[in-house]
Amino acid sequence: MKRTSLILLMLLLFAGISSAQRFAYVDTRYVLDNIPEYESAQEQLDIIAQEWQDEIEAMYSEIEKLYKEYEVEKVLLSDELKRKREEEILQKEREVKELQKKHFGQEGDLFQKRQELIKPIQDEVFNAIKEIGEKGNYAVIFDVASGMGILYNDPKYDKSDEVLEKLGYQN
């Protein structure tokens, strides 16, 4: 209801500016959910992510086991052996954190796999929206799935250079 009101308000606002301009909206979540290749790619990503998560959890379990063993035996160990065991545990923690970063980090394996599997589908959707925008002579196409983001806009309605000129700057 709130989204529909927002869409209606935006359309009325733009319609008041110029009735010759056309506007539309697309729900990209709906579009993507109805593309079998996207669903398949998403399932592949989920499987891969779960495998990596299981691997990391197993490593953390091993670290926890080592730590518990260390706590039990600590009283009997010499200072040198204590340091050695502590360092071994810390090293394993560093390794698992590094692996976690490698798989799930900002530019990690999961991100790369997502780029490989999903980005081509998203690009195809974007190109279809752009084509519809150009052929349908739309000024703007909004994406209701992303909270009213603009998916396509006709460059002839871009007033950025005019704003810069008015402010005394040149492009």
TrEMBL record:
<dbReference type="Pfam" id="PF03938">
    <property type="entry name" value="OmpH"/>
</dbReference>
<dbReference type="InterPro" id="IPR005632">
    <property type="entry name" value="Chaperone_Skp"/>
</dbReference>
<protein>
    <submittedName>
        <fullName>Cationic 19 kDa outer membrane protein</fullName>
    </submittedName>
</protein>
<comment type="similarity">
    <text>Belongs to the Skp family.</text>
</comment>
<keyword id="KW-0732">Signal</keyword>
<dbReference type="GO" id="GO:0050821">
    <property type="term" value="P:protein stabilization"/>
</dbReference>
<keyword id="KW-0175">Coiled coil</keyword>
<dbReference type="GO" id="GO:0005829">
    <property type="term" value="C:cytosol"/>
</dbReference>
<feature type="coiled-coil region">
    <location>
        <begin position="49"/>
        <end position="102"/>
    </location>
</feature>
<feature type="signal peptide">
    <location>
        <begin position="1"/>
        <end position="20"/>
    </location>
</feature>
<dbReference type="InterPro" id="IPR024930">
    <property type="entry name" value="Skp_dom_sf"/>
</dbReference>
<dbReference type="GO" id="GO:0051082">
    <property type="term" value="F:unfolded protein binding"/>
</dbReference>
